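> example.struct
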């Protein structure tokens, strides 16, 4: 060859370095992909796991036998089949024995095999192991030529290319591995569900994904947890790739001291508990999460139990949401369904995996049946020869006695009776006592039984349907033996179609209270709840709470929540938990990611985002903004900026209009202004707004209402006086002016609030000291604009009215029933009207 040289009696070949590197790297890549890092689609095992299980099987380490030192097993695997490092073999063996790594453990370990805290296992000289019961199903019938065997690394022994795997181990236990240029991450699944899906595929090979997902709703991790939503699961099953969000199982409980605790009882798959707790502690130390006072790990042999104590002034739901965002209490499992199929790596759908497995099992049944058929035919052939020998017993004995050795006797029998070598060998090896007439019946019975078996085997081999029936029967038997309940919960989340289909459309009443509690009730169960009585101090803040916003809404309608910080959040009505008549509801901070010092000031019902509807917003500093309703049609969980606020200002009122309403804005120092909403041009979402009223030094807005037909303007002073006035008393002016005198504050005290009410409403007032009073609107005198009005609520020294709300009128009959009811019973309310 031209490129060969002889140098010092050695041959040197010149090669192109680029081509050599490319070829060498490809060879290495394929070796890693096929023979090390990726599982086979048939048994779901990588070569090292397959060799461990086969070695344990060969050495008789069955579940019924005693445990055996891992050091001996690892050494046997290295010496016989896996010429790599002992650490790699032991690490693989340990993983097969960890209940937090494997959904169904294939190795039964005895000793320290590590923990979910990331503690390492003990050295292999200390630990012991044997096969688990279910791993025996991986090797069933391996001695019946069901799988191919190949020479081991030094050609001394034979090892199986794949294990018979009588259950779909690739899906059941999952797999993870990093090869060269590709990786696999297959989640574990529930055995019963997976076998049900395989049986469904056998019954209908054209089955679609939705029907398969009726059997397998999603992965089932050994550590439990909650899968958030089904879209990632569907993507993984339909395409082979998908992002599955897994969340820890948590519970918020109220301790005896009134503080809240977050209890973590299950973690997402592959999350290190000790590292998670350390991470949370660091976040608290760095003040990225400020609501946690203490973390304790009470986990024991009974299960996981982490307690996270919440500070008194913190919202547990907000803290939990922060933990989900910043820590591994919520992780994304990136499913990549990659496995070796016919010697090549392929991304597989769920149906592909089931198809490959069922085809493999059909081949296993075929090869096992062929093996059993040959054994039966061979045995029948020998028995036919023995039957001839019994028929001519004296002559057979005479031939054997005359022969000088066994080969001579065998040849003579073959020549005399027309037997073949196998039959003749069986005769000469038999004891004389067996060659009697008594044995003839046994032989004939055995031949008849064998012929029946042979007939059955031939039927199986001749029918694909029969083979599939056997696969299904044997799968069901394994399911009945090993199946257990699902551990991982699958939770529907908003934004996915699944949940909408499950929730009925019904009319509800939504209420938001003064202290930020929200609840949903069906209209037919809702009745007026009289919480504090008239002029009676509540026992605590929660007991003196009253509804400030309430309306009737469809369960599928949207609700917009506006906060004093100028942000808006959107929920579906059904996302607000349903309460009872007695319950106070849930703190809005547990539903929305609002900060501790943020308060919801307005709640707007939105049946649909109509382009012709508008929102009017007014701040404490007299800024007004008008914006099209559909500007807030977004599903962003973190909310949107409703308007930019000046420093020290806050968003206090939001109302929906049809675009042609009149607006009344009133101030603390007794000034008010009425103008057309069209005076305010529609603005963009980030705009700050324009001036609604020119405020004097020290003044601020205390109320904004939209004028409606039949409504009267209620003005209440901080000192407890109030009056109703006709809207006509407030002539229409231009936006941004100084306004008209609404109340003589220097005589009767600052204005607490204004509100447009109807005569059939009730008015609820709360004072700074927590005194609540409820009066009928029709009992309040109608007076002209600047007049004092009448006493609505007597306030003590240093006390003042701080909140005014309207509610449906409570009639006398309901009142009498309330008075007759026991002291601890709840009052009733009518369904509320919408403001």
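> example.seq
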């Amino acid at each position: 060859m031209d490129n060969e040289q002889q140098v010092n009696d050695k041959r040197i070949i010149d090669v192109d370095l680029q081509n050599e590197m490319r070829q060498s790297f490809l060879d290495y890549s394929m070796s890693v992909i096929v023979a090390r890092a990726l599982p086979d689609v048939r048994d779901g095992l990588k070569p090292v796991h397959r060799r461990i299980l086969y070695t344990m099987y060969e050495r008789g380490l069955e579940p019924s036998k005693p445990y055996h030192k891992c050091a001996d097993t690892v050494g046997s695997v290295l010496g016989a089949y896996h010429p790599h490092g002992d650490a790699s073999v032991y690490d693989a063996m340990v993983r097969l024995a960890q209940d937090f790594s494997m959904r169904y453990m294939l190795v039964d370990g005895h000793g320290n095999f590590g923990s979910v805290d990331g503690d390492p296992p003990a050295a292999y000289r200390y630990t012991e192991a044997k096969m688990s019961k279910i791993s025996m199903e991986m090797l069933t019938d391996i001695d019946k030529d069901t799988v191919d065997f190949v020479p081991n690394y030094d050609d001394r022994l034979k090892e199986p290319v794949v294990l018979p795997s009588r259950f779909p181990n690739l899906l059941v236990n999952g797999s993870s591995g990093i090869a060269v240029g590709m990786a696999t991450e297959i989640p574990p699944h529930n055995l019963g569900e997976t076998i049900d899906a395989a049986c469904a595929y056998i019954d209908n090979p054209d089955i679609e994904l939705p029907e398969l997902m009726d059997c397998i709703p999603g992965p089932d991790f050994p550590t439990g947890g909650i899968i958030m939503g089904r879209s990632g699961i569907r993507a993984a099953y339909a395409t082979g790739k998908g992002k599955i969000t897994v969340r820890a199982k948590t519970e918020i409980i109220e301790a005896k001291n009134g503080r809240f605790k977050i209890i973590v009882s299950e973690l997402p798959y592959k999350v290190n508990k000790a590292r998670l707790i350390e991470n949370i502690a660091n976040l608290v130390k760095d003040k990225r999460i400020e609501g946690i006072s203490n973390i304790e790990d009470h986990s024991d042999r009974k299960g996981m139990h982490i307690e996270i104590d919440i500070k008194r002034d913190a919202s547990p739901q907000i803290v939990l949401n922060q933990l989900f965002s910043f820590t591994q209490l919520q992780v994304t499992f990136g499913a990549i369904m990659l496995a070796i199929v016919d010697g090549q790596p392929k991304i597989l759908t769920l149906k592909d995996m089931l198809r490959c497995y069922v085809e493999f099992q059909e081949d296993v049944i075929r090869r096992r049946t062929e093996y059993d058929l040959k054994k039966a035919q061979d045995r029948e052939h020998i028995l036919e020869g023995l039957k001839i020998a019994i028929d001519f017993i004296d002559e057979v004995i005479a031939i054997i006695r005359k022969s000088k050795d066994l080969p001579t006797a065998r040849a003579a029998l073959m020549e005399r009776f027309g037997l073949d070598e196998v039959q003749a060998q069986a005769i000469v090896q038999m004891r004389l006592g067996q060659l009697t007439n008594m044995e003839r019946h046994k032989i004939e019975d055995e031949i008849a039984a064998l012929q029946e078996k042979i007939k059955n085997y031939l039927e199986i081999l001749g029918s694909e349907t029969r083979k599939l029936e056997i696969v299904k029967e044997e799968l069901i038997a394994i399911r009945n033996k090993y199946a257990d309940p699902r551990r991982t919960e699958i939770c529907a989340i908003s934004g996915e179609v699944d949940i909408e289909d499950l929730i009925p459309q019904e009319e509800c009443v939504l209420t938001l209270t003064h202290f930020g509690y929200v609840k949903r009730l069906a209209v037919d169960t809702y009745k007026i709840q009289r919480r504090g009585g008239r002029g009676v101090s509540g026992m605590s803040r929660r007991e003196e709470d009253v509804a400030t916003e309430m309306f009737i809404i469809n369960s599928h309608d949207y609700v917009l929540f506006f906060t004093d910080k100028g942000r808006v959040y959107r929920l579906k009505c059904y996302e607000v938990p349903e309460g009872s008549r007695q319950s106070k509801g849930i703190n809005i901070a547990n539903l929305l990611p609002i900060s501790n010092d943020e308060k919801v000031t307005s709640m707007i019902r939105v049946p649909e985002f109509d382009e012709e509807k508008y929102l009017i917003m007014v701040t404490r500093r007299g800024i007004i903004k008008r914006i099209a309703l559909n500007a807030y049609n977004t599903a962003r969980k973190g909310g949107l900026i409703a308007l930019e606020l000046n420093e020290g200002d806050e968003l206090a009122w939001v109302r929906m209009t049809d675009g042609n309403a009149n607006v009344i804005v009133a101030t603390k120092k007794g000034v008010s202004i009425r103008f057309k909403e069209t005076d305010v041009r529609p603005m963009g979402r980030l705009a700050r707004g324009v001036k609604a009223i020119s405020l004097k030094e020290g003044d601020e807005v205390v109320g904004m209402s939209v004028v409606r037909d039949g409504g009267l303007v209620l003005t209440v002073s901080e000192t407890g006086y109030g009056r109703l006035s006709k809207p006509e008393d407030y002539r229409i002016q231009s936006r941004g002016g100084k306004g008209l005198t609404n109340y003589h504050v220097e005589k009767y005290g600052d204005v607490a609030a204004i509100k447009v009410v109807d005569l059939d409403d009730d008015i609820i007032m709360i004072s700074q000291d927590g005194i609540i009073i409820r009066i009928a609107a029709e009992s309040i005198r109608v007076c002209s604009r600047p007049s004092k009005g009448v006493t609505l609520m007597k306030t003590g020294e240093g006390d003042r009215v701080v909140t005014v709300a309207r509610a449906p009128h409570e009639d006398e009959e309901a009142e009498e029933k309330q008075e007759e009811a026991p002291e601890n019973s709840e009052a009733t309310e009518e369904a509320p009207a919408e403001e």
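> remarks
The first strand starts at residue 4 and ends at 7.
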